[in-house]
Amino acid sequence: MQQKKEEDKAPPPPPVPVFWIETSESVSRHFEFSPSGLLSVKLLDDSRPIVHRMAESFVNKFFPSGYPYSVNEGYLRYTQFRALQHFSSAALSVLSTQSLLFAAGLRPTPAQATAVSWILKDGMQHVGKLICSNLGARMDSEPKRWRILADVLYDLGTGLEVLSPLCPHLFLEMAGLGNFAKGMAVVAARATRLPIYSSFAKEGNLSDLFAKGEAISTVFNVMGLGAGIQLVSTICSSMQGKMVVGPLLAVVHIYSVCEEMRAAPVNTLNPQRTAMIVADFLKTGKISSPADLRYREDLLFPSRLIEDAGNVKVGRALHMAIKPSKLHQIKEIFPEEKFLLNRGNRWTDMVLEQNASGEDALRGWLVAAYAAHMEKNFDEQNFDVLQLAYERMNNVISPFLAELQAKGWHTDRFLDGTGSRFAF
Description:
Strand content: 5-15%
Distance between the termini: 78 Å
Number of strands: 9
Shape: flat
Radius of gyration: 29 Å
Helix content: 55-70%
Number of helices: 16
Order of helices and strands: HEEEHHHHHHHHHEHHEHHEEHHEE
Protein backbone atom coordinates (compact mmCIF):
# COMPACT_ATOMS: atom_id res chain seq x y z
CA MET A 1 0.00 0.00 0.00
CA GLN A 2 2.82 2.37 0.85
CA GLN A 3 4.49 1.71 -2.52
CA LYS A 4 1.21 2.29 -4.37
CA LYS A 5 0.67 5.66 -2.66
CA GLU A 6 4.17 6.77 -3.70
CA GLU A 7 3.48 5.80 -7.31
CA ASP A 8 0.24 7.84 -7.28
CA LYS A 9 2.06 11.01 -6.20
CA ALA A 10 2.28 13.70 -8.92
CA PRO A 11 5.76 14.54 -10.23
CA PRO A 12 7.32 17.66 -8.69
CA PRO A 13 6.90 20.86 -10.73
CA PRO A 14 9.92 21.96 -12.81
CA PRO A 15 12.19 24.46 -11.04
CA VAL A 16 11.33 28.08 -11.74
CA PRO A 17 14.29 30.00 -13.20
CA VAL A 18 15.58 32.90 -11.11
CA PHE A 19 16.07 36.08 -13.13
CA TRP A 20 16.23 39.83 -12.75
CA ILE A 21 16.82 42.91 -14.91
CA GLU A 22 19.38 45.60 -14.14
CA THR A 23 19.41 49.04 -15.75
CA SER A 24 22.32 51.44 -15.37
CA GLU A 25 23.77 54.17 -17.60
CA SER A 26 21.21 53.59 -20.39
CA VAL A 27 22.00 49.86 -20.46
CA SER A 28 19.48 47.12 -19.59
CA ARG A 29 20.68 43.58 -18.94
CA HIS A 30 18.75 40.40 -18.18
CA PHE A 31 20.42 38.11 -15.60
CA GLU A 32 19.18 34.55 -15.13
CA PHE A 33 20.29 31.53 -13.10
CA SER A 34 19.67 28.24 -14.88
CA PRO A 35 18.53 25.15 -12.88
CA SER A 36 22.13 23.92 -12.97
CA GLY A 37 23.32 27.09 -11.26
CA LEU A 38 24.95 28.83 -14.24
CA LEU A 39 24.47 32.60 -14.61
CA SER A 40 23.66 33.93 -18.09
CA VAL A 41 23.62 37.60 -19.07
CA LYS A 42 21.66 38.97 -22.03
CA LEU A 43 21.76 42.56 -23.30
CA LEU A 44 18.22 43.94 -23.66
CA ASP A 45 18.79 47.57 -24.55
CA ASP A 46 21.80 49.83 -24.99
CA SER A 47 21.13 53.48 -25.84
CA ARG A 48 24.63 54.76 -25.12
CA PRO A 49 26.66 56.56 -27.83
CA ILE A 50 28.61 54.22 -30.09
CA VAL A 51 31.92 55.57 -28.72
CA HIS A 52 31.01 54.38 -25.21
CA ARG A 53 29.96 50.98 -26.49
CA MET A 54 33.22 50.59 -28.43
CA ALA A 55 35.23 51.59 -25.36
CA GLU A 56 33.43 48.98 -23.23
CA SER A 57 33.97 46.35 -25.89
CA PHE A 58 37.69 47.18 -25.98
CA VAL A 59 37.97 46.92 -22.18
CA ASN A 60 36.13 43.59 -22.16
CA LYS A 61 38.42 42.12 -24.83
CA PHE A 62 41.77 43.42 -23.64
CA PHE A 63 41.44 43.86 -19.88
CA PRO A 64 40.74 41.23 -17.17
CA SER A 65 37.16 40.63 -16.09
CA GLY A 66 36.15 43.03 -13.35
CA TYR A 67 38.77 45.64 -14.29
CA PRO A 68 39.83 47.89 -12.52
CA TYR A 69 38.79 46.15 -9.28
CA SER A 70 40.29 42.78 -10.20
CA VAL A 71 43.90 44.00 -10.60
CA ASN A 72 46.46 45.74 -8.42
CA GLU A 73 47.50 49.36 -8.74
CA GLY A 74 49.61 50.29 -11.76
CA TYR A 75 48.14 47.83 -14.26
CA LEU A 76 46.84 50.51 -16.68
CA ARG A 77 50.21 52.28 -16.86
CA TYR A 78 51.95 48.93 -17.29
CA THR A 79 49.59 48.05 -20.16
CA GLN A 80 50.03 51.41 -21.90
CA PHE A 81 53.80 51.13 -22.03
CA ARG A 82 53.64 47.42 -22.86
CA ALA A 83 51.62 48.31 -25.97
CA LEU A 84 54.13 51.01 -26.93
CA GLN A 85 57.03 48.62 -26.31
CA HIS A 86 55.61 45.93 -28.61
CA PHE A 87 54.73 48.47 -31.30
CA SER A 88 58.25 49.95 -31.44
CA SER A 89 59.91 46.52 -31.18
CA ALA A 90 57.90 45.10 -34.10
CA ALA A 91 58.62 48.12 -36.28
CA LEU A 92 62.33 47.87 -35.48
CA SER A 93 62.37 44.16 -36.35
CA VAL A 94 61.17 44.89 -39.89
CA LEU A 95 64.00 47.39 -40.40
CA SER A 96 66.62 44.94 -39.12
CA THR A 97 65.35 42.06 -41.25
CA GLN A 98 65.38 44.09 -44.44
CA SER A 99 68.94 45.22 -43.64
CA LEU A 100 70.04 41.62 -43.15
CA LEU A 101 68.65 40.57 -46.49
CA PHE A 102 70.26 43.57 -48.20
CA ALA A 103 73.59 42.56 -46.65
CA ALA A 104 73.11 39.05 -48.01
CA GLY A 105 72.75 40.46 -51.53
CA LEU A 106 68.95 40.26 -51.76
CA ARG A 107 66.50 43.03 -52.55
CA PRO A 108 63.35 42.03 -50.71
CA THR A 109 60.02 43.78 -50.66
CA PRO A 110 58.75 45.02 -47.27
CA ALA A 111 56.26 42.16 -47.14
CA GLN A 112 59.05 39.61 -47.69
CA ALA A 113 61.09 41.25 -44.93
CA THR A 114 58.15 40.91 -42.55
CA ALA A 115 57.68 37.22 -43.30
CA VAL A 116 61.37 36.36 -42.99
CA SER A 117 61.68 38.26 -39.68
CA TRP A 118 59.75 35.50 -37.87
CA ILE A 119 61.98 32.79 -39.33
CA LEU A 120 65.22 34.54 -38.38
CA LYS A 121 63.96 35.50 -34.92
CA ASP A 122 62.94 31.96 -33.97
CA GLY A 123 66.19 30.35 -35.06
CA MET A 124 68.35 31.20 -32.03
CA GLN A 125 65.82 30.58 -29.27
CA HIS A 126 67.14 27.05 -28.68
CA VAL A 127 70.66 28.38 -28.08
CA GLY A 128 69.29 31.11 -25.82
CA LYS A 129 67.46 28.55 -23.73
CA LEU A 130 70.69 26.68 -23.09
CA ILE A 131 72.55 29.85 -22.12
CA CYS A 132 69.76 31.16 -19.86
CA SER A 133 68.89 27.84 -18.23
CA ASN A 134 71.24 28.52 -15.27
CA LEU A 135 69.90 32.02 -14.64
CA GLY A 136 66.36 31.17 -13.56
CA ALA A 137 66.93 31.83 -9.84
CA ARG A 138 68.38 35.26 -10.57
CA MET A 139 65.41 36.10 -12.77
CA ASP A 140 63.02 35.13 -9.96
CA SER A 141 64.88 37.43 -7.58
CA GLU A 142 65.07 40.44 -9.94
CA PRO A 143 62.46 39.96 -12.69
CA LYS A 144 62.30 43.69 -13.48
CA ARG A 145 66.03 44.02 -14.00
CA TRP A 146 66.22 40.94 -16.20
CA ARG A 147 63.20 42.07 -18.22
CA ILE A 148 64.96 45.36 -19.00
CA LEU A 149 68.20 43.51 -19.77
CA ALA A 150 66.28 41.25 -22.16
CA ASP A 151 65.08 44.24 -24.18
CA VAL A 152 68.53 45.83 -24.18
CA LEU A 153 69.93 42.56 -25.58
CA TYR A 154 67.15 42.48 -28.17
CA ASP A 155 67.92 46.01 -29.34
CA LEU A 156 71.67 45.29 -29.46
CA GLY A 157 71.00 42.27 -31.65
CA THR A 158 68.66 44.29 -33.84
CA GLY A 159 71.27 47.05 -34.12
CA LEU A 160 73.85 44.57 -35.41
CA GLU A 161 71.38 43.41 -38.03
CA VAL A 162 70.57 46.97 -39.13
CA LEU A 163 74.30 47.74 -39.51
CA SER A 164 75.09 44.52 -41.41
CA PRO A 165 74.83 46.12 -44.92
CA LEU A 166 77.77 48.40 -44.01
CA CYS A 167 80.07 45.37 -43.83
CA PRO A 168 78.63 42.61 -46.04
CA HIS A 169 81.86 40.58 -45.78
CA LEU A 170 81.02 40.06 -42.07
CA PHE A 171 77.41 39.17 -42.76
CA LEU A 172 77.56 35.72 -41.15
CA GLU A 173 79.25 36.98 -37.97
CA MET A 174 76.96 39.97 -37.47
CA ALA A 175 73.77 38.08 -38.28
CA GLY A 176 74.75 35.17 -36.04
CA LEU A 177 75.71 37.39 -33.10
CA GLY A 178 72.60 39.52 -33.52
CA ASN A 179 70.25 36.55 -33.55
CA PHE A 180 72.10 34.99 -30.62
CA ALA A 181 71.48 38.13 -28.52
CA LYS A 182 67.84 38.24 -29.63
CA GLY A 183 67.40 34.56 -28.80
CA MET A 184 68.66 35.12 -25.25
CA ALA A 185 66.40 38.15 -24.97
CA VAL A 186 63.31 36.18 -25.95
CA VAL A 187 63.97 33.53 -23.30
CA ALA A 188 64.72 36.07 -20.56
CA ALA A 189 61.57 38.03 -21.42
CA ARG A 190 59.40 34.91 -21.29
CA ALA A 191 60.97 33.73 -18.02
CA THR A 192 60.19 37.03 -16.26
CA ARG A 193 56.66 37.38 -17.65
CA LEU A 194 54.95 35.25 -15.00
CA PRO A 195 56.36 37.09 -11.93
CA ILE A 196 55.31 40.41 -13.45
CA TYR A 197 51.78 39.24 -14.26
CA SER A 198 51.50 37.65 -10.80
CA SER A 199 52.14 41.02 -9.16
CA PHE A 200 48.94 42.37 -10.71
CA ALA A 201 46.71 39.36 -9.96
CA LYS A 202 44.28 40.31 -7.23
CA GLU A 203 41.48 37.73 -7.27
CA GLY A 204 43.16 34.53 -8.46
CA ASN A 205 42.76 35.77 -12.05
CA LEU A 206 46.29 35.11 -13.28
CA SER A 207 45.16 33.20 -16.38
CA ASP A 208 42.79 36.02 -17.35
CA LEU A 209 45.55 38.59 -16.87
CA PHE A 210 47.95 36.53 -18.96
CA ALA A 211 45.45 36.01 -21.79
CA LYS A 212 44.43 39.68 -21.99
CA GLY A 213 48.05 40.83 -21.79
CA GLU A 214 49.03 38.58 -24.67
CA ALA A 215 46.05 39.86 -26.67
CA ILE A 216 47.28 43.45 -26.31
CA SER A 217 50.82 42.36 -27.26
CA THR A 218 49.55 40.65 -30.40
CA VAL A 219 47.48 43.65 -31.54
CA PHE A 220 50.31 46.14 -31.12
CA ASN A 221 52.86 43.76 -32.65
CA VAL A 222 50.73 43.64 -35.79
CA MET A 223 50.38 47.43 -35.77
CA GLY A 224 54.14 47.78 -35.32
CA LEU A 225 54.80 45.45 -38.27
CA GLY A 226 52.49 47.59 -40.36
CA ALA A 227 54.34 50.73 -39.32
CA GLY A 228 57.66 49.01 -40.07
CA ILE A 229 56.49 48.09 -43.57
CA GLN A 230 55.54 51.72 -44.16
CA LEU A 231 58.91 52.95 -42.84
CA VAL A 232 61.05 50.63 -44.99
CA SER A 233 59.00 51.67 -48.01
CA THR A 234 59.58 55.40 -47.40
CA ILE A 235 61.92 57.00 -44.87
CA CYS A 236 64.03 53.89 -44.19
CA SER A 237 64.46 52.75 -47.78
CA SER A 238 68.06 54.01 -47.51
CA MET A 239 70.74 53.18 -44.97
CA GLN A 240 70.81 56.81 -43.81
CA GLY A 241 67.12 56.63 -42.93
CA LYS A 242 67.63 53.45 -40.93
CA MET A 243 70.52 55.06 -39.02
CA VAL A 244 68.17 57.85 -37.89
CA VAL A 245 64.91 55.96 -37.26
CA GLY A 246 66.47 52.81 -35.75
CA PRO A 247 68.01 54.50 -32.66
CA LEU A 248 64.82 56.49 -32.09
CA LEU A 249 62.72 53.32 -32.07
CA ALA A 250 65.23 51.65 -29.75
CA VAL A 251 65.04 54.56 -27.29
CA VAL A 252 61.22 54.40 -27.28
CA HIS A 253 61.42 50.63 -26.80
CA ILE A 254 63.78 50.74 -23.80
CA TYR A 255 61.98 53.70 -22.21
CA SER A 256 58.66 51.84 -22.51
CA VAL A 257 59.91 48.66 -20.86
CA CYS A 258 61.53 50.68 -18.04
CA GLU A 259 58.20 52.41 -17.34
CA GLU A 260 56.42 49.04 -17.52
CA MET A 261 58.69 47.58 -14.88
CA ARG A 262 58.45 50.64 -12.65
CA ALA A 263 54.65 50.33 -12.69
CA ALA A 264 54.66 46.66 -11.62
CA PRO A 265 54.12 46.20 -7.83
CA VAL A 266 56.09 42.97 -7.37
CA ASN A 267 55.13 41.50 -3.99
CA THR A 268 57.84 38.89 -3.41
CA LEU A 269 60.74 39.45 -1.02
CA ASN A 270 64.25 39.83 -2.43
CA PRO A 271 67.26 41.54 -0.80
CA GLN A 272 66.48 45.03 -2.13
CA ARG A 273 62.77 45.07 -1.31
CA THR A 274 63.39 43.54 2.13
CA ALA A 275 65.95 46.23 2.94
CA MET A 276 63.55 48.97 1.82
CA ILE A 277 60.72 47.54 3.97
CA VAL A 278 62.96 47.39 7.05
CA ALA A 279 64.37 50.89 6.45
CA ASP A 280 60.88 52.40 6.13
CA PHE A 281 59.71 50.55 9.24
CA LEU A 282 62.58 51.84 11.35
CA LYS A 283 62.14 55.42 10.11
CA THR A 284 58.34 55.72 10.17
CA GLY A 285 57.04 52.71 12.08
CA LYS A 286 54.87 51.80 9.07
CA ILE A 287 54.99 48.96 6.55
CA SER A 288 55.33 49.95 2.88
CA SER A 289 53.16 48.12 0.36
CA PRO A 290 54.45 46.77 -2.98
CA ALA A 291 52.83 49.77 -4.70
CA ASP A 292 54.69 52.14 -2.35
CA LEU A 293 58.09 50.68 -3.26
CA ARG A 294 57.70 50.12 -7.01
CA TYR A 295 59.03 53.53 -8.12
CA ARG A 296 61.85 53.52 -5.57
CA GLU A 297 63.46 50.23 -6.63
CA ASP A 298 66.90 50.52 -8.21
CA LEU A 299 66.49 48.47 -11.40
CA LEU A 300 70.11 48.85 -12.56
CA PHE A 301 72.01 48.22 -9.31
CA PRO A 302 69.63 46.24 -7.06
CA SER A 303 72.41 44.92 -4.81
CA ARG A 304 73.34 48.34 -3.40
CA LEU A 305 73.53 48.53 0.39
CA ILE A 306 70.92 50.59 2.27
CA GLU A 307 72.37 52.26 5.36
CA ASP A 308 69.02 52.74 7.14
CA ALA A 309 68.46 48.98 6.91
CA GLY A 310 71.81 48.08 8.47
CA ASN A 311 73.94 47.76 5.30
CA VAL A 312 73.09 44.06 5.09
CA LYS A 313 74.78 41.93 2.47
CA VAL A 314 73.10 38.55 1.97
CA GLY A 315 74.24 35.51 -0.01
CA ARG A 316 77.97 35.36 0.60
CA ALA A 317 79.42 31.93 1.32
CA LEU A 318 79.57 31.02 5.00
CA HIS A 319 83.37 30.66 5.09
CA MET A 320 83.74 34.15 3.55
CA ALA A 321 81.14 35.86 5.73
CA ILE A 322 82.06 34.44 9.15
CA LYS A 323 85.38 33.34 10.55
CA PRO A 324 85.37 29.79 11.98
CA SER A 325 86.47 31.15 15.38
CA LYS A 326 83.32 33.32 15.58
CA LEU A 327 80.82 30.79 14.25
CA HIS A 328 80.02 29.05 17.55
CA GLN A 329 79.64 32.34 19.42
CA ILE A 330 77.27 33.79 16.79
CA LYS A 331 75.20 30.62 16.72
CA GLU A 332 74.74 30.87 20.49
CA ILE A 333 73.13 34.31 20.08
CA PHE A 334 70.58 32.94 17.56
CA PRO A 335 70.18 29.31 18.67
CA GLU A 336 66.74 28.67 17.12
CA GLU A 337 67.05 30.96 14.08
CA LYS A 338 67.69 30.11 10.45
CA PHE A 339 70.12 32.95 9.91
CA LEU A 340 73.58 34.01 11.07
CA LEU A 341 74.77 37.63 11.33
CA ASN A 342 78.31 38.97 11.41
CA ARG A 343 78.81 42.71 11.73
CA GLY A 344 81.81 44.16 9.92
CA ASN A 345 83.21 47.65 9.47
CA ARG A 346 81.41 48.38 6.18
CA TRP A 347 78.47 45.98 6.14
CA THR A 348 76.72 43.18 8.00
CA ASP A 349 76.85 39.71 6.47
CA MET A 350 73.70 37.62 6.75
CA VAL A 351 73.84 33.95 5.81
CA LEU A 352 70.58 32.03 5.60
CA GLU A 353 69.93 28.37 6.31
CA GLN A 354 69.01 26.21 3.32
CA ASN A 355 65.28 26.13 4.11
CA ALA A 356 64.94 29.71 5.41
CA SER A 357 61.78 31.58 4.39
CA GLY A 358 61.04 35.23 3.83
CA GLU A 359 60.03 35.54 7.50
CA ASP A 360 63.45 34.27 8.58
CA ALA A 361 65.18 36.79 6.32
CA LEU A 362 63.03 39.60 7.75
CA ARG A 363 63.89 38.56 11.31
CA GLY A 364 67.59 38.63 10.54
CA TRP A 365 67.34 41.93 8.68
CA LEU A 366 65.53 43.58 11.58
CA VAL A 367 68.22 42.41 14.00
CA ALA A 368 70.97 43.80 11.76
CA ALA A 369 69.17 47.14 11.35
CA TYR A 370 68.49 47.51 15.08
CA ALA A 371 72.13 46.63 15.84
CA ALA A 372 73.39 49.28 13.41
CA HIS A 373 71.18 51.95 15.00
CA MET A 374 72.23 50.93 18.52
CA GLU A 375 75.90 51.00 17.63
CA LYS A 376 75.56 54.64 16.59
CA ASN A 377 74.09 55.62 19.97
CA PHE A 378 75.80 53.23 22.41
CA ASP A 379 79.37 52.10 22.88
CA GLU A 380 78.64 48.41 23.16
CA GLN A 381 80.59 45.32 22.19
CA ASN A 382 79.64 43.69 18.89
CA PHE A 383 77.98 40.63 20.42
CA ASP A 384 76.19 42.68 23.10
CA VAL A 385 74.64 44.86 20.41
CA LEU A 386 73.45 41.80 18.49
CA GLN A 387 71.92 40.32 21.65
CA LEU A 388 70.05 43.54 22.46
CA ALA A 389 68.89 43.92 18.86
CA TYR A 390 67.68 40.31 18.84
CA GLU A 391 65.56 40.91 21.93
CA ARG A 392 64.10 44.07 20.38
CA MET A 393 63.27 42.22 17.17
CA ASN A 394 61.37 39.54 19.09
CA ASN A 395 59.20 42.25 20.67
CA VAL A 396 57.99 43.65 17.33
CA ILE A 397 58.12 40.74 14.91
CA SER A 398 54.56 39.40 15.36
CA PRO A 399 52.66 42.62 14.51
CA PHE A 400 55.33 43.43 11.90
CA LEU A 401 54.72 40.19 9.99
CA ALA A 402 50.94 40.43 10.36
CA GLU A 403 50.85 43.92 8.83
CA LEU A 404 53.33 42.89 6.14
CA GLN A 405 51.06 40.08 4.97
CA ALA A 406 48.01 42.36 5.18
CA LYS A 407 49.78 44.74 2.78
CA GLY A 408 50.03 41.91 0.23
CA TRP A 409 53.64 40.74 0.67
CA HIS A 410 54.46 37.05 0.21
CA THR A 411 56.62 36.02 3.16
CA ASP A 412 56.77 32.27 2.49
CA ARG A 413 59.89 32.57 0.32
CA PHE A 414 62.99 34.75 0.14
CA LEU A 415 64.34 35.11 -3.41
CA ASP A 416 68.06 35.76 -3.06
CA GLY A 417 68.99 34.58 -6.54
CA THR A 418 72.05 32.36 -6.50
CA GLY A 419 73.12 33.41 -3.01
CA SER A 420 74.87 30.81 -0.87
CA ARG A 421 73.03 29.19 2.06
CA PHE A 422 74.24 26.92 4.86
CA ALA A 423 73.10 23.69 6.53
CA PHE A 424 74.46 22.21 9.75
